[in-house]
């Protein structure tokens, strides 16, 4: 009888251990037990849209070489109505098909935001005040070729035509020898949509660091050259926001060969990339984008995915909240009609943003004192000295008087 009791105890212990192992893949109600292949990813996104039709919409941004759709799920409180003054934000993952941790994190983030809307104050505030877009896979063809457990390989990295998509965008310093790929063209066209995105990050694997522009320099592949953008201060702050909120990234020595102070790096200072997506975002739209390397192993085993969610969840939310910093406003004439394509200039920072078709602008800035000028064709410019503080973006509307042809800040 004692032997039977001992056997029952052993079986019970094994059952509990197995349950604990299985349960470890579920975090915050999200199941990270396996990777989503293309049909599973599509179904997961479609189920979320069906379950939360007032908060989520599925967009087809483009098509891969092999005909797979590039899906982005939009999440916001009035998903069928454009809310004036609400900034657009995006996460793009799986640009390299064999680096899929971000693919799973964006799918998980979509579920996390939607399931907690209305009960979690932080999530509700983000969804109410941000037009969020999450693209789990920019390179679905490459993902289908890659294989789980391949930490350092190249299988599936490129698209079906063998082109590295993060070397395929038009570059300010060099000319690409590759034709623009369908996946690249899809992003380029997406960036032209009105209003422009304000903030973005794209996810990679193979290291653990938040990388910011510029990725390239006029000096070619000279490793160690710091290629500073006009908004270097803002980009360093954005990258550090992600890094410091991460479980270990800010320590800077997490992967073999890594040596990143505070877990951030200027792209070219690390190694030069010609034709990168983050630089293109910054130079050809209003969008500030960084590149986040999320895992030492490019394609880790699915059994580790829940740990990546735990490590990145706070970073994903904290970085998204940065879209609501700096200054923002609406530019109109004195009758209230919006003025599109007005330029918002900041003295000492040689990078302008332009207003949307509704006159909206968002200008990310670190705390400090700035001289801000708004220029509109046919008018005398509006100029104001603004003290930017940390926290929520300050609102500064601008009005141009059609009688006097002058502009002024109205707040």
UniProtKB/TrEMBL annotation:
The active site is at residue 293. The keyword Signal applies. Its cofactor is Zn(2+). Residues 1-19 form the signal peptide. GO terms for molecular function: carboxypeptidase activity. Residues 34-323 form the Peptidase M14 domain. PROSITE patterns: CARBOXYPEPT_ZN_1, CARBOXYPEPT_ZN_2, PEPTIDASE_M14. The keyword RNA-binding does not apply. Keywords: Carboxypeptidase, Glycoprotein, Hydrolase, Metal-binding, Protease, Signal, Zinc. SUPFAM superfamilies: Carboxypeptidase regulatory domain-like (SSF49464), Zn-dependent exopeptidases (SSF53187). Transmembrane segments: none annotated. SMART domains: Zn_pept (SM00631). InterPro entries: CarboxyPept-like_regulatory, CARBOXYPEPT_ZN_1, CARBOXYPEPT_ZN_2, Peptidase_M14, Peptidase_M14_domain. It comes from the Eukaryota. Belongs to the peptidase M14 family. This is Carboxypeptidase D. It comes from Aplysia californica. The gene is LOC101854047.
